[in-house]
Write a structure and sequence with these properties.
The protein is of the alpha+beta class. It has four helices and seven strands; from the N terminus they run ββααββαβαββ.
Length: about 160
């Protein structure tokens, strides 16, 4: 069986060799977007971050809580899916988030999770865990810049709503 290969040419265009499933296209698109985000000097546009997060998380059938760890200039250090849950929730442990922030030597973080239901309205639980994480990370001087809730068709930024 041939494994599809995405090949980038000199003009930055991609050509696919072999048959490709839709989820492989989405996964490859997320990888390309992450490479673009990682290559930037700094993350400045919420729409760029949201676009990547939708590609990376919106196709998941269960909730996935993830973090983009950044340096002090807001350059991407890594993207880490941290917790997997069920169709309507994921347990998030601040201790694990703090450990990962320290392991990445992060100065800032952007959180994200998907809502498999398609409704991106943040729940009270989403707001509560964001506050808990913000408080825990403040103890080690890591700033929480945003928390995105994404689905296939939309996204919500808690920072844009003034909830951070």
């Amino acid at each position: 069986m041939d494994i599809p290969t995405f090949v980038k040419n000199e003009q930055g265009l991609y050509h696919v060799q072999g048959c490709v499933k839709p989820e492989e296209i989405v996964s490859t698109a997320a990888t390309i977007l992450l490479d673009e985000l990682t290559g930037r000097d700094a993350l400045t546009a919420p729409t760029d971050v949201a676009q990547f997060l939708q590609m990376a998380l919106a196709q998941e059938k269960n909730e996935v809580f993830a973090a983009i760890f950044l340096n002090n200039k807001h350059k991407v250090l890594s993207f880490e899916p941290l917790f997997n849950g069920t169709i309507d929730g994921a347990a998030v442990y601040p201790r694990v988030v703090v450990q990962q922030a320290l392991a990445c030597n992060a100065a800032a973080v952007i959180f994200a999770h998907n809502h498999p239901s398609g409704c991106c309205e943040p729940s009270q639980a989403d707001r509560t865990i964001t506050t808990r994480l913000k408080d825990a990370l403040a103890l080690i001087d890591v700033r929480v810049l945003d928390h995105f809730v994404v689905s296939r068709s939309e996204w919500v930024s808690l920072a844009q709503r003034g909830w951070l």
